[in-house]
């Protein structure tokens, strides 16, 4: 049984300006397959190697796979569909498989527009892919496909799309052993540090249900690995693959305070030559004020905070139970402890104005984070907020759902003006940092890190890759009238996800009840961005929500 995994060649001018990110999904799936006895696994990273369709076709022609799998987030869905179309053309007898969050919830639309895809893997992929491979290897494909939990496929004889019952989440994440050796490590460089970068996983899922996010729905249960085993994995990455920087893939790794502290204590004990970063909640930083020196000693150098919006009204819309004052204090605490504080602003909703964008810039000056990021609001088609926005969503070209392209048109301005004002915020903010802040940071490690981040910004700027500026023809304020986002207007409708079988509604309702009960009884658990305490241990240690 030969398995070939493909990573689509998609670039947006967003996060990749900091370097080439290793596709961790391939390592986790390859590890699960090899544990199950499927050892003939090949991985092709078309994104990092910037492979054209013809180059992918040539690579595929040299292989003889039985199964060809790809993954896709929403903006890379068309690239992934095209990859699998090429795969089916080259190897018509191979089973083509697509996984990832977009395909999980939008399987009806994906299978309709890409009929060459044989299977959609819905949700956490390790167990499902192993079961699928067993079915194929034992000659039971496609006759027994309906017995495989967690997939969707087109039954052409019946003329309908079938989704099988969902596969249970992996109860014990410590049984997962990723095969990191499958990746081309010399190619995964983190520009700010000039070292190799990894994205390991300590937890999966999120116990909260932000209206703009679907991670809680995709992973279903919030589960945390043994911190010691996570550090073992990181030590392997450092020793065997010369990784010098990592970012935890978790949505918010500090949610489970006890395990995060254990993780940091073990990293400090081993003194591994590696720095790292996380995304987390403002209130967790406030909660852990006394622990921040430990986090820094453990190598934590960069924290991206979900401060989210300038106007408190927007914070409430996103279910973010934080305040402007809390955001400022959290940034100050991080900076005082030698940790890079990055403030995230979501812009580009329908009520955005020139004044609100200016307000975000003034807040950035007032809060004084080391870094600031203005992300265009991106309404995932499987999120609650997408449904709430209704006809305010007029662009269904998912390739542009990338945090850098204005999907929602503000009522008071054109999209080109929105982009121009966001760029103006970036120019002013980082110009000040370049001359008044970064060169004068006393902490040598932090100063080197910040100057490296500036290098990454400058490199992407000169190459016209930042914010996809080269492809949209933006060259500064004088060119905003000529900006062309190149939306595919032929994509005019979207089939909303049918997720009743996924029990998403039940999951959400159950979690909402638990949160309400926790608030009523202890006043500790809040929505994403809130939360005064750590989660109760019994809600995570045994795989419960």
Automatic annotation (TrEMBL):
Q: Which InterPro entries match?
A: BchE-like, Cobalamin-bd, Elp3/MiaA/NifB-like_rSAM, Methyltransferase_Class_B, rSAM, rSAM_horseshoe, rSAM_sf
| Radical SAM core domain segment(s) | 192-415
Q: Which GO terms describe its cellular component?
A: cytosol
Using the record's annotation, list all stretches that form the B12-binding domain.
Answer: 9-143
- Which cofactor is recorded for it? [4Fe-4S] cluster
Q: Which Gene3D superfamilies match?
A: Cobalamin-binding domain, tm_1862 like domain
* GO function terms (MF aspect): 4 iron, 4 sulfur cluster binding; catalytic activity; cobalamin binding; metal ion binding
Q: Which UniProt keywords apply?
A: Iron, Iron-sulfur, Metal-binding, S-adenosyl-L-methionine
Pfam families linked: B12-binding, Radical_SAM
What is the protein's given name? Answer: Magnesium-protoporphyrin IX monomethyl ester anaerobic oxidative cyclase
Q: Which organism is it from?
A: Niveispirillum lacus
Instruction: Recite the lineage of the species.
Output: Bacteria, Pseudomonadati, Pseudomonadota, Alphaproteobacteria, Rhodospirillales
- What gene is this protein translated from? bchE
